[in-house]
Design goal:
The complex is a heterodimer of chains A (442) and B (406). Chain A is an alpha+beta fold. Chain A contains 13 helices and 19 strands. By secondary structure, chain B is mostly beta strands. Classes of the chains: A alpha+beta (442), B mainly beta (406). The interface between A and B is large, with 47 and 57 residues.
Chain lengths: 442, 406
Amino acid sequence: MLRRLAISCLVALLALPASARTRPHYGSTLRVEIEGDAWQRSGEFTRRLVLDGLTRMDADGAAHPSLAIEWKSENEDHRWEFRLRPGVHFHDGSPLTSTAVVNALNLACTTNCPWSAIHAVGVSVVFISDSPMPSLPALLAGDEYLIAADAGGNIGTGAFQVTGFNNSLLTLTANESCWQGRPFVDVVEIHVHRSIRDQWLDLSVGRADLVEVPAEQLRQAREQHLTVLQSPSSTLLALSVASSGVLGNPDLRWSIALAVDRAALSNVIFQKQGEVTASLLPAALTGYSFLYSTDRDLNKSHEKHGGLTLPPLAMSTEGGSAMQLAAQRIALNLYDAGFNVQVVAAEGTRPAELALRRIQIESNQPRAALEMMLRNAGVAAPVLENTPAELYRIEREFLETHALIPLLYLPRAYAMGGRVRDLRLSVDGTPLVAGASLEDAP
Amino acid sequence: MKLIWVAAMIAGGLTSLMASAAPAYISPWDDPANALAAQIAELLGPGQARLTIHNLSTISNDDIPTIRRLLEQDLKTHGVLASGVESANAIRLTLSENQRERLWVAEIVEGNETRVAMVRVGLGTARQTHDGGGLTLRKQSVLLSGKAVLATVETANALVAVAPEEIVIYTHTADGWREQKRVGIGQKRPLARDPRAVILPSPGGDGFEASVASMSCSGAYQPAQPVEEWSVRCHESDDPWPIVQSDATKNSLKAFYNSARNYFTGVISPGLGVDLPPFYSAVLLPRPSDGAALLVGGIDGKVQLVENDALKPVSGARDWGSDFAALHTGCGTGTQIIASGSGEAVSDSLRAYELPTLEAVPASAALPMDGTVTALWTAPDGKSVFAVVRSATDQYEVDRVTATCN
């Protein structure tokens, strides 16, 4: 009898109407915690929430309209004209004009720009360069060319506007008249300078909805059953080598490149979450990265070193403890090859000959991504070719200078709470918060 | 009975929609093998070389012998004998790929020198349908677009698509639908982030009516008039949107839409005698007892049926998303509900359900869709449903979904 009653209850429970998943709801507050600065130039997503670019990249590597609705090139890509989207306003109510865009881009890029001049012409912005700029639409989607109405980069046209910053809490409020549509969540609260440990703790007790997961802690996050959102390889860990002074000798730079043990870095420091690489662009973009050997060759490194007696070298690094550990490990690798390297702070008084850096890949169009990488490394020449064979040739020629030694590709990852729905990552691993909604929104 | 008049809509039948483009088959390995052989021969010149093949791609290893054979044949025509095991020269072919295409990379090794040749190879795609349950659902791609598509309707040998800011008219060609005319809607206010629209043929068959955000558009044309000469006019409107229309009765059930959000307010015209909650979707279903009932998917995720002047909860719908549409198949109870799987997800699906009582019963296996189903509606003839699917790369595809009885 009891058994029958229990079965009846179970059947009744199963038959109860349960709520289905729905389209995204509007409302509520998304609570985000980050370790760094909210306005960090690259790699943080605050700028992407507040500012828009003239173009944006889709997952297939094509540039799409954003603040510019169309563009055309003339004179074999020496001149580009971008027509602005009408009716767009900055958060302060001022209209998006070609003059405002020119001012913003002139502030954003003072040297080593892809263009030599920009002009406001009616509702269009015209870029002119002595060299062809075939990748300009893709380059303009990059983080550094987002359009702000003010020098501080706080006033944009994006889905959220800055409404407060105090006690390490940045408050962004939904832009009701956003040209892309009002975002689903009402408010994004970004708690800055939170250690990863504190972020995870807050996530576990429901005080945060979105927290960071460094690549080296991805395995731990999974072991703790966090809901992790992970990008493909989007950050290049690379060793920048000065091409002057002691390391002006190309054989010494080559010796350094041969001495680094990438596999150990990946396995030990980054817990096998990185993709060992000796190429600038990841395999997912090019398909040819296997052509670059990632093997350590200490014998050849010694050969290239030539037994020279060198003064101690300094290696700076940015970022957290994993970067420090990686730098120390590389210093040990180089010691094996006859170099004496001291790891120093990034803001040290003495300029470092070596710098361990994280470089964000902001485009998934191979040509544009390569040009951005090369510009980042101080090579300003545009990449004109677009075939895999030509891109490989350009990349190889640059890598043979050993001014930048690619080491690992790392994913970007975030853990999110159960309230968060429909959150996706962009090409460069930035969370697309404007498209996310919250389960408990009214 | 408040719903009696709408029963005629189902009996009256609904008009037809859309055709499809058939995918073309391309032989995958002949051309790349030929192109690569030409490049290798140019670098290596006539002679012998050892050929090794390494597969880093998603190409099946079963295809490697074919690729080897094709490459050896093509190399031979260029004077390169690729079976020379004794040769000092080597050709290392790596079948690689990136996220957009395959890449075949040949490293040509002559002594200490290695040169590289590459050819691009397109990624093949395959579309699948899925069988199972009492029905088999099938989908056919109707339209692909790099821009958002909110709703479409076929009328007078044209396909009219509603985009957030434009009405786009396509005409049918041998290669599928080709864009012919684009008319700006002239949106006065910013759109919601999840914009929606409806479009229906005019009852007289000489135009269409579309509603999107706070705008209403109407198209009109004469028989045999070229699409370029069609008249399309849009104006601001807060009138309710037609959600069901019948050719037979010329009546439609209309619902007020919250254009600042993504749902209907729950106020419909004519009223049904019960207070409806705000909802995402509503469809008319024939019922054995009362002629018809309105199935409503609330914004709270609850699915309810308006029947006998009462709002009755429906169970078995917890796997439904917010979009569903009625499909008249003649199988089983005659009409099924096609429901999206998750409302908003990278990999959505559609599934048919029957509603013999107040419990939704699956009537087919899930039909995987290649992205998020962002809109779903019944074709005017009721015999197919149309789905708009947004891919992970923000491409939009309009699919026609039909069912066959098992």
